[in-house]
Amino acid sequence: MAKAGVDRLDYILAPKRSKNKKKRWKNDKIATAYFGSRQATVEQIKAVRRRLKRAHRRLADRKLNIRLLPQSRASKSSTNGHNYGGPITPRRFVLFPNWFKKKSKEEKAAIIIHELLHDWFIDHKIKDGGKRKTVYGSRLAKKLAKEKPRTARRNPENYEQFTFAVWDFIKNRAK
Question: 25 and 149 in contact (C-beta within 8 Å)?
Fold first, then answer.
């Protein structure tokens, strides 16, 4: 899934000398839905690709240390995984039994991508219905991208939802 997201961003950024990168970005409904379209520079688009590429490389090198802890150790009963991020745990994160309850392998893969991105980013919050909520799920990720695109490009949930949407698009197109 991470590779599919990187490939889609590669298409937007190719060819190197093309001046249509921003136009392809603005015309890409999935990328703009999760990372925002307002005033995205080519460098910002490249940064999104670079971040997702890093996560893909970590998945490809297969040197991840994933621990399973009881659900009672999670911060909420709905938590799927946790990664404190940063240089202390660059290749390690925790999954909880809720992760195994996900219906599809794509949902599970998207959560792992989310947890890997915590090495660089924290979960962000957005005002929704009068309350500040942590951005989880497609609706809030899209809302963050629309209201604060710069923040969306630094939010693990937006990368998770982006890769899931790209994968879903590819899967449905193949039918």
Answer: no
